[in-house]
Amino acid sequence: MRLLVIGALPLLVALAVLSVPAFRGRRVPVALLAAVALAHLGLVGSLWIAPESGTLGGWFAVDPLGLTVLTLTSILFLVTVTYAVGYLRREPPSSGRVFAGCLMAFLSAASVVALAQHLAMLWVGMEATTLSVAPLVFLRRDRRSLEATWKYLVISSVGIALALLGTFFLASAQGDVPGRPLVLPDLVAHARELHPAWLRAAFLFLLVGFGTKMGLAPMHTWKPDTYGEAPSLVSGLMAGALTSCAFLGIARITQVAMAAGLGPFAQPVLIGFGLLSLAVAAVFIVGQSDLKRLLAYSSVEHMGLLVLGLGLGGVGAYGSMLHLINNGLSKSWMFLAAGNVVLATGSSSATGNRGLVRTLPVSAGLLVLGLFAVTGSPPFGQFMSEFTILRAAINAGHPWIAAVMLLLLAIIFVGMAVLVLGMALGVPDPGSVPVRESGWLVLGPVALAATVLMLGVYIPGPLHDVLTQAAVALGGTAP
Amino acid sequence: MTQESLVALALLAVVAPALPGIVVKTKSLLTGRRGPPVLQLYSDLWKLVRKGTVYSRTTTWVFRAGPLVALVSLLVAALFLPLDGRSAPATFAGDVIAFAGLLALGRFALVLAGMDTGSSFEGMGASREVTIASFAEPTLFLCFIALVLATGDLTLSGMLGTPLAAAWPRSGATLCLVGTSLFVLLLAENCRVPVDDPATHLELTMIHEVIVLDHSGPDLALILYGSALKLALFGVLVVSIFSPRAELSGPVAVAVLFAGLGVVAVLVGVVESVTARLRLTRVPQLLVGAGALALFGIILELR
Amino acid sequence: MYSAAQLVLLFVVLSDLAVLGTTRLSSCIRGIAAQGLLLGLLPVLVAPQLSVHAVSLGVGTIVVKAIVLPWLLGRAIREAAVRREIEPLVGFIASQLLGVLAVALAFAIASRLPLPATTQPLLVPVSLATLMIGFIVLTTRRKALMQVIGYLILENGIYLFGLTQTESVPFLIELGVLLDVFVGVFIMGIVVFHINREFDSLDSTRLAELTD
Fold first, then answer.
1. What residues does each domain of chain B span?
2. What ipTM, to 2 d.p.?
3. Chain B, chain C: beta-carbon pairs less than 8 Å apart
4. Alpha helix locations (H) across A116-239?
5. Which of C180, C184, C212 is opposite residue A124, by nearest beta carbon?
6. What pTM did the predictor assign?
């Protein structure tokens, strides 16, 4: 019952906002958004305390993988809404109800993806997330964001279409095997009986399709444009929540593939995509001059790490799940801090922004701390997760992968540091005054930063249990 | 070489000039006019034969030989067609290539005759005609390949005769595609709209008329008769595909063929009235499209 | 002899080739509408026995793919006053030949795939061919509207493949897929409208400002 509410409530409110005439005009119903966010988080939190069994004939259920993504999405949504309170006072969108409606539709769709056990239902949710975010990318209504929206729509739609084909291939693989068609527990239970050729094809198409949504190289070309042109709070939500949902899709098919014994086929493919994403990110980060595009390429890098960990197996699966959380939280924090910069100075490029420590002290501090977090320095959470993935590489007998990964991470650190530190330090333009940073605008990012810091030092017991169960389901082990 | 097939060939040679008349009559009726009589071409031929010829001083024997070579090649090509639905006067394995080659020879002779006049205007028409031919020839061969695959026979009498009737239940879709493709080729090779407008009076839009511009008298009669015969030959191809007449007796089969030719002529008239002439750059696209249909038929056969 | 389903599938391939070869945008939209109609007939023809699932899926498909989506796209070209596609990146003749090549490849691949005996033999090759031709249109055409049409053809190919799995994929999911496609094209139509307003043309090669 709770699952139904979690999935459907935001959508129903969204539909109401979009259709009821009372919501016309520019004002965004922020109170309504906040209410939905809090209710959603509360329900998700209750799932941690009192677990619930499935509904709708087993189509929806809470399992460790889904619970992780759902919690992450819910937290990020609340932070985004908090930020929006301050943001919307400075830059109101042209249509308030489209903004609110699309955000809530996104929350609903992401919840569906996280809770779905029927893989076709997961696809429907994934497509819904794509479509609900598109109007948000287009919020500023200028040429550049129009171009970004078009590229995003076309590339994502093709990716999602390929994922649908992969889902149909999976159904073909099931053929006459007993069990409900395309329902995950049945697929995993009868995995050995699935037709191997169809299963391999399904794996590849689902990887490419959902990988396009994640932003894995070489399907990442829409990312820098979209994250660069969309309003920062939307970019943060996409980088944190949307990519995690897409990763969930890949994780599900990996679950099935591992259970069917296709490890030797699937793992090298995952490792290949992971290393390619790391390399592409490294190449494009060095010499980057725009903060938001830099963060987009950093997102490509972290998606590569996620898939790499998944492919390495062993403790790598645990590392990936931990990294999912750390990455989601810190990307959102970085994008919101970048959003503050854009609000104050009007652009996110390095040429217009120098010496932010003097003009925007809190946001600049958040950016610098975020630099260290995102590149995997202790004591932040990413250090633990990236270290776990390194360990997995060495345990699996591929020390060269660990070496390549370290090298690329080092290059990325240098590239990012040059830009971020260059923007934060240095002499500000004469005539720029310190900007008063509204409490709403920094509350969210600071909270996220604190969480990531905590996760670097201590992982709470229940979280560790859930992550371990998720890792085991993915064919890995706990550290 | 049976007597029946020779008689059928003679009948075809006599009936051929009626076909352009049917086309023009259909076009006239569809546009609300009465139009010239169906047998008008016979009168035109008779008038031209009794006239004298004028030869330009810049022309050579090539110019005089052109119309004759064109007509003779068409008549020889007609020998390969099974007009009674079973056997042709002449047949050997691979005679499709001879058929296509003879048609090409006829076109080649006319083009050379046109270029022999030394005028740049005919040169323009020649280059256009040959461009269209370079797209039409491969398409024709693709259609023949599809027919070979469908019927398993390498002779024209086989491809359009008894084995064709047997192939219909199995390869019906392929044969429909080939028939459509051949109809488009008919429009292209016989200079009909949408490829070339036979009734145009604007010189820069002409393709075929340019080449035959300088001929007069009996030469022109030979050319006009030849183009009517070419229309008849392609019509026979299209009709044979859509109505396999192997079961019918000789005279009935020939009668059905001529009725079919009439239907094809009416269809050409309808197409000419309904569609507009294509821009010259779009004609290759049309022919490639027809080729694509034939290729699709081949794929269906190979599956 | 040919069953009705096989004839419909052959006409689907012909409609694919027609969209590849035509230059007028309104003809392309009519081709898509015809394809939607053909696709709507298929669930009824392919299903082993007539069921509510099959009939409602067919009706839903016809309503969305043959009526609503072409109407949306038609409105978009009328707004933009665009008539013809300019020479695409590959060329019309090359596209036609590529399309036939795609059909040949699809038949070749499909003959190697292990399929249960109950499925219609032409369904998988035609779905793969439609998929590939949709991809060709999507990647080689310049006008934004043609890219949307390419995406629709791609989706049609996937839908055709989905028809081999009518038992596994329940009606609710098919509805969800249709709805997603509809909303997707709706949003794309809005973006196309805005592209036309901003850039005064639908030429997507003009969308090249964002770069590293």
1. 3-302
2. 0.89
3. 45
4. 119-137, 143-174, 184-189, 196-214, 222-229, 232-237
5. C180
6. 0.87
